[in-house]
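Protein in question filed below.

…
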Amino acid sequence: MRDYDNIPVLEWHDGAGLVHAMAQVKLAEPVIIRFPEDFNLDIDANSCGCKAGNSAVHHVDCHAHNVLRILAELNALPSLAKLGEIAHEAGQLVDVEEGAHRIIIHD
C-alpha cells in the first residue's frame, strides 16, 4: 500500500480549493482532494487505465485526464475536467479511494 502521509490534503467544498489544487498539480506536486460523502467517485477503472489497489474501491495509477473528466461529468463540475487536463500535461496520475471519498494526484 502506498504511503500518502506527507501529501497535503484539500477538502473539496463546492469547488473551494480548486485553485490551490491546480497550483500543486502545475508544479507536479502531489495533492489529495477529499470530497463530501455524496460526491460520486464511481469510475470505470478499466476505461481509466487503473491498476488494482488494495480493495475493490481503491484504484491506482489511473489516467488523470480520464478520471477527472468522468468525475466532472458525474458531478456536474467542469472545473474538474480542467484539473484533469493540467494533471495530464504535468504527467501526473490519479489514485481513487472511493471508500475514503478522495483522490490522490501524484507522479
Q: What stands out?
A: The radius of gyration is 12 Å. Strands lie at 9-11, 31-34, 51-52, 58-63, 93-97, 102-106.
